[in-house]
Amino acid sequence: MSDAARDESAAEEALPRAARIQDVARLAAVSTATVSRALAHPDRVSPEARARVMAAIAQIGYVPNPAARTLRSQKSRMVLVVLPNLGNIFFSKILRGIEETLFEAGYGMIIGDLDGSPEKEARFTAFMAGGQVDGAILLNGHVFSEARAGIPLIALCEAIPEAAIPQIEVDNRAAAQAMTEYLAALGHRRIAYVCGPAGNVLERERLRGYRDGLAAAGLAFDPGLVFPGDYSLEAGVQVGEGILAREGRPGAVFCSNDEMAIGLMRTLISGGLRVPQDISVAGFDDIEFAAVVEPPLTTVHQPRRELGQAGAAVLLDLLAGRKAQPRVRLPTEIIVRASTGPARS
Amino acid sequence: MSDAARDESAAEEALPRAARIQDVARLAAVSTATVSRALAHPDRVSPEARARVMAAIAQIGYVPNPAARTLRSQKSRMVLVVLPNLGNIFFSKILRGIEETLFEAGYGMIIGDLDGSPEKEARFTAFMAGGQVDGAILLNGHVFSEARAGIPLIALCEAIPEAAIPQIEVDNRAAAQAMTEYLAALGHRRIAYVCGPAGNVLERERLRGYRDGLAAAGLAFDPGLVFPGDYSLEAGVQVGEGILAREGRPGAVFCSNDEMAIGLMRTLISGGLRVPQDISVAGFDDIEFAAVVEPPLTTVHQPRRELGQAGAAVLLDLLAGRKAQPRVRLPTEIIVRASTGPARS
DNA sequence: CGCTCTCGTGTAATCGTTTACATGCACTGT
DNA sequence: ACAGTGCATGTAAACGATTACACGAGAGCG
Predict the structure, then answer these.
(1) Cβ of A49 < 7 Å from strand C?
(2) Do B95 and A110 touch (CB under 8 A)?
(3) Splitting chain B (345 residues) into consecutive groups of 10 residues, what average pLDDT does each group show?
(4) pTM for this prediction
(5) Nearest Cα to B66, choosing from B76, B57, B58, B74?
(6) How many angstroms is C1' of C13 away from CA of A73?
């Protein structure tokens, strides 16, 4: 074997050098303009020329260079999805909904995991400002760095009230109210609430809904029954320990997400309480595991995949220059499972 | 208010037109080459010039155009991550590990959710061939479309034995063997196994490990104790129903992932069996919820975030032209919780 | 027959960077 | 004093597509 044959990762046909539009044009005996048009506007090219171009493309395996295309047309056909924590399973189904809708429209998806880092914010802002993406979907509840990047943005799941961008979400307030009323209808008078992180918009809505629900059921709001949390399993565990330790425990606990509800339930059960006989527990989100913990968790179902699809659809409207709905609200549903039951008389 | 002032989305300073390197150069009174160098090779530019360039950049808010940069340098600083199902929570932590490692190295992440669609395969292949990404991480267990796209690839979590690309994973075989031996050590003689999808590489390894474990414990392999599954909760439920219905049930069941183990446990418990008193159940992966189901699940812990980090690190080696390890194996750990216990004498 | 219109095509400018090469200047060593 | 060296900088040629504009050939029409 000669030296020449050996280098360039053996047995490859000597540096194939990706085909360019020029190569296609030459092979099809047309100009590069015609090749470009055959791909972008097939109807503006004669059938014969189109056929020759397609054949040439297939023959040499031509793939258009996206960078060149983006540079010239100022459209990247990419969307940035910013989220606070990629490790949080709540987002996975939403991402899937986004991805499938974007894909159908010919868009790709870049993921930005914010992770609380300002450095990351800066880079994602640059993605937007630099034309790396044509639009962005924000799942993180705030517009960072005054990201008036000049590209369409939408807020998904967490509304951003101060930003004039489309909002896609469920009606958190109404859903929380409905769950609170449901617990009241079971006969519970002392309904506790476990919060998400303070200051969170979504959380404000849910807390408000909880208060609305109490009011609608003719119950007084008792600040002593509101526990701070942060959406983590551990927070649920801590609240559970608090409840076990105190006098006069609530008859029902409504947690503003499922993870906390699950952590709470486990702690209460370990502490000797029976759920729902001694205490009812409800969650919010309806993550996959809500159905398989013991007892299965009563919760508010959010249509996560559909939320993702709807968000992507609105962004696509914006990108296509169509008028987009400023606010989309998807319906929730209370899923009654076994973690809630009637109050003891 | 005049018409002219009203159009172009009110109150914006009349079409700011993103700043180009040319504008920076003019403002800093240097050439574009110097601006470019000030950013890419700060040490090759005099401190004074660098300071002027940086000031100019800050003043006009210049952000380099990634498309132009990619076109010229043939490097996109983007990596494609291909996975079989974005909705599967198993991947979220891995993605996070990948993202953070890539980010630190200045790379962005494009996600491709394969979803069993050949159309999607084709597009992702184009991403690679077109130079949209510099490298790819495959989580899907096969190299599609002869994706010898000419860019570095690595296989993460699911080895691709027929491809000569680096593999990063845990030692599935050894881990499955260890779990099987652990169950045998508890005194179980009839240890069942619930498979993943047939043909899956990862699954082949785990099944082999199960057989190794039986052999090491001096137990005979009984094909009647191997149940087909597909990694879904429902598959676990079905196997559970099968076990409840049959004569002579196994003393322990080892499921090749946690979801199936959880579905199985719930079904067995609903059917009146006690776990682990009547039957032990073990899983694989250690997803978040393994710890919070009732009883908490004994399982094989995979360091998912670290797997993501390691995979990204190997790919970065390749991208930097460094020699990469052809195979990285991260350690697993058997996490003993409450779903397994001694065999009844 | 000549005019206009439409259609398909080609020519070439352009998008915003990076970087090979050239230039000029200030040292250094003989 | 001069060649040699190295550094900071500028000039201009790529990178690979899209697309405005121009052009020629028919078609349609009075």
Answers:
(1) yes
(2) no
(3) 37 61 95 96 93 96 95 95 89 94 96 89 89 93 64 88 87 97 98 92 94 98 96 93 93 96 94 96 94 92 97 95 91 97 90
(4) 0.90
(5) B76
(6) 14
